[in-house]
Amino acid sequence: MDTIRKPPTMADVARRTGVSPMTVSRAFKRDSSVSQETREAVLLAAEELGYVFDSTASNLRSQRTDFIAVTIPSINNANFADTVRALSDRVSERGLQILLGYTNYDVAEEERLIEQLLRRKPEAMVVTGGKHTPRARKLLANAGIPVIETWDLPEEPIGHVVGFSNALAVREMVNHFVSVGYRKIAFIGGDASRDTRGTDRRAGFIAALIHHGLDTSRLIAAGPPPISMREGANAMGQLLERFPDTDAVICVSDLSAFGALTECQRRGIAVPDRIAIGGFGDYEIGAICVPSLTTINAFASEIGAKTAELILDVLDGKLDQPGRVTIRPDLILRQTSR
Amino acid sequence: MDTIRKPPTMADVARRTGVSPMTVSRAFKRDSSVSQETREAVLLAAEELGYVFDSTASNLRSQRTDFIAVTIPSINNANFADTVRALSDRVSERGLQILLGYTNYDVAEEERLIEQLLRRKPEAMVVTGGKHTPRARKLLANAGIPVIETWDLPEEPIGHVVGFSNALAVREMVNHFVSVGYRKIAFIGGDASRDTRGTDRRAGFIAALIHHGLDTSRLIAAGPPPISMREGANAMGQLLERFPDTDAVICVSDLSAFGALTECQRRGIAVPDRIAIGGFGDYEIGAICVPSLTTINAFASEIGAKTAELILDVLDGKLDQPGRVTIRPDLILRQTSR
DNA sequence: TACGCCATTGTTATCGATAACAACACCACT
DNA sequence: AGTGGTGTTGTTATCGATAACAATGGCGTA
After folding, report:
1. Contact flag B116-A100 (C-beta cutoff 8 Å)
2. All residues at 6 or more sequence positions from B10 whose CB lies less than 8 Å from its CB, including other chains
3. Which helix (H) or strand (E) segment is B63 a member of?
4. Would you state the pLDDT for residue B6?
5. B210–chain A nearest CA distance, Å
6. A 26-85, residues with C-beta < 7 Å of strand C
7. In principle, which of A121, A147, A200, A247 could form an S-S bond with A159, CB 3.0–4.6 Å?
8. B36 CA to D3 C1', in Å?
9. Is the model's pLDDT at A31 over the cut of 80?
10. Predicted local confidence at residue A4, as pLDDT
11. Residues of chain A contacting residue B78, judged by C-beta atoms under 8 Å apart
């Protein structure tokens, strides 16, 4: 009859191998000083016993968890997913694991999430964006671990930064649109208060129009983030009714831009001949759809990779002052605009 | 001058509040027996000291981590992201946190990942798919925690199952296509050995064609997974050259189906008049694109929600035998087919 | 031969919260 | 007054791995 037995510990493996627990512990580390022979014997005994290494005990004693905590606004967004993937790929080579949480584009939720993640004692904390509640800032600043803000260039960074200026990127698109002759340019984005990157992009849009002396009233608020394809399509419908003479529209992301494009297709409106469309983020869909989307490549994967490098450098003690990596977004001209 | 001081512990908070560490511990739990007065005093002292609860110690002593480990093939896939989000939303209400890893559609990588995740002592383990290496199966079976296989209906489940038959779902689409008159039907999917759900879908496709006495040679292998828009477009190009008289094509996902659609648009081939297209997964893009995509809704979010409910039931001791939740995918007819 | 270095292994105390048990005060009810 | 229950707090030992230090044996070199 099977009795419910407790799972084996290192002590059990040690007994079976005829060594001390400490030797078992060393055998499970990569580069520690155990003879090849002993290590193999230990690992064999462990496999036979069905031993599974217990990180919780290791974490407490060694005061290391090998977690990298990451917050992103949404798990369903290909841009953020790309960043996380690049980050994860890079740090997992070093045995570090991503601990992921999403904020739903809400700074209050972000605060809760940050507090929860910090309890797990991660080695570093990566947050998306540079706007946080005062308490979240305080928690991060006092956590005693490297903090990296991404996808933004905050004026007063908490620690390290790997990002770009959302406002500047959109401004460059506007400059291009104006240079090729568009004058009645609209913006489709989310409600102002929530998605801070979206708000920055809209601010850059308005600033650029003012700079060119153009009308800034063509702003369509597509609801609370995330603004995806459906919201983009609806917003384009509103735009066409409220400002029928619009000759170009810039959308907060490629997803909404694609939605807007399809709405034009449904209404038989020629893109780009009657209205041009610009997106943001260089999602796969923008390169594939017909006509393909003019957009801005923000180098999502590169943000993740650079963040990983920065974290590894800090953990290795190679960097003792806050790092600031600035990404330069790229305007990609395709078929939805001149 | 600031000396580097160690972060405060419960003992520090206890001293400051004038109570025992145990009382502090209770104050940080939700429903434990501390007076409202004491709790507030403790939390105030904690806040003043900048105390952050240390999960690593709690995890070891209580033998609970409140982690739910989850493996998905790719973090960049909206279907799996939907499942994880629904799962996460449900379990986080109960203080459980998702520990996510991705396998890159590779069972060997899955094995490594499962081993790594089990070391963290999760309360339950959710895996995507029902095909695993023998060692992975053994690790899961011996882990002593609830195991839930999803997005599949394995013949010999390890533990619980929340899924559907990929083969059957595609078979139903084929049946519909045949019933409305399509006869030369092709399939676009990934290379056979990798993505097991994709392979199941192709198997269902072939079985259905055989049942109807139709030609089964129109199979396009679009490379190793993930098969996304670009691969779908390339595969459609191949299909049109190798089997120009094809009258319908079923794609392994909506992403590849959309890519295929755009290739037709680039070549001026009428959809669905000259060739019909079917997708899989009911991604947002399929509902928005023009023409909209005929597809199969596999209820990704529902899989996550049902998985969460199952986990909570098991952890509450309300379920002592393996659960098997079968999802019934839905054929959604839209504009890319009759 | 003697010395010291290196590789390998062992011993002891500890990381910080909490399970299990004990104790105390206070109140209601008989 | 005595009894029992409830709500609140305290005490002690412990979860399982490992940091820090110690010890051993083998080998090369002077």
Report:
1. no
2. B21, B24, B25, B51, B54
3. none
4. 84
5. 34
6. 26, 33-38, 60-61, 63
7. A147
8. 29
9. no
10. 55
11. 76
* A14-CA/C1-C1' distance, Å: 39
- Quick one: DSSP state of residue B186? E
pLDDT band with cut points at 50, 70 and 90 for residue B195: confident
Q: Is the pLDDT of residue A330 over 60?
A: yes
Confirm or reject contact between B213 and chain A (CB < 8 A).
no
The verdict on a CB contact (< 8 Å) between B75 and A84 is yes
Decide if B208 touches A, using CB distance below 8 A. Answer: no
> What digits encode the pLDDT tens for the residues A73-131?
999 999 999 999 999 999 999 999 999 999 999 999 999 999 999 999 999 999 999 99
Query: A326 near A153, Cβ under 8 Å?
Result: yes
CA A66 to chain centre: 20
- Chain C bases closer than 7 A to any CB of the protein: 7-12, 14-20
Q: Span A9-37, mean pLDDT?
A: 92
How confident is residue B212, by pLDDT bands cut at 50, 70 and 90? very high
CA dihedral A133, A136, A140, A141 (to 10 degrees): 60
**B106, B194 in Cβ contact below 8 A?**
yes
In this structure, are strands A295-297 and A330-332 parallel, antiparallel, or unpaired? antiparallel
Note whether A69 contacts B: Cβ–Cβ < 8 A: no
Average pLDDT in chain A: 96
Q: Using CA of residue A58, residue A64, residue A68, residue A71, what is the dihedral sign?
A: positive
Residue B107, C-beta contacts closer than 8 angstroms, at least 6 positions apart: B131, B132, B133, B136, B196
What distance in Å separates the CA atoms of residue B293 and residue B140, rounded to the nearest whole number? 38
Q: Is the pLDDT of residue A195 over 80?
A: no
Q: How far apart are the first and last CA of chain A?
A: 78
Domain A65-164+300-328 sits in CATH at 3.40.50.2300
More confident site: A5 or B292:
B292
Which chain B residues have a beta carbon less than 8 Å from that of A235? Answer: none
pLDDT tens sequence across B215-229: 999 999 999 999 999
CATH entry 3.40.720.10 includes domain B10-53: no
Other C-beta atoms closer than 10 Å to the C-beta of A289 total 27
By Cβ distance, the residue of B55, B230, B265 closest to A121 is B55
Convert the pLDDT of each residue in A59-68 to its tens digit: 999 999 999 9
Mean per-residue pLDDT of chain B: 96
Beta-carbon separation of B230 and A118 below 8 A: no
- Interface check for A81 against chain B (CB to CB < 8 A): the answer is yes
Q: How many residues are listed for chain B in this entry?
A: 338
Is A287 in CB contact (< 8 Å) with chain B?
yes
Residue identified by tokens 């209205």 is A275
A10 and chain B in contact, CB less than 8 A: no
Mean pLDDT confidence for A122-143: 97
What distance lies between CA A297 and its chain's CA centroid?
A: 14
Statement: B66-164+300-328 belongs to CATH 3.40.50.1110 = no
For residue A57, the chain B residues in CB contact (below 8 A) are 60
Q: What is the CATH number of domain B166-297?
A: 3.40.50.2300
Matching fold, domains A65-164+300-328 and A166-297: yes
| Subunit contact A262:B59, Cβ cutoff 8 A | no
CB distance from B55 to chain A under 8 Å?
yes
pLDDT in the model for residue B2: 41
Contact between the CB of B59 and strand C at under 7 Å = no
% of chain A residues with pLDDT over 70: 98
The answer to whether the Cβ–Cβ distance between A233 and B98 falls below 8 Å is no
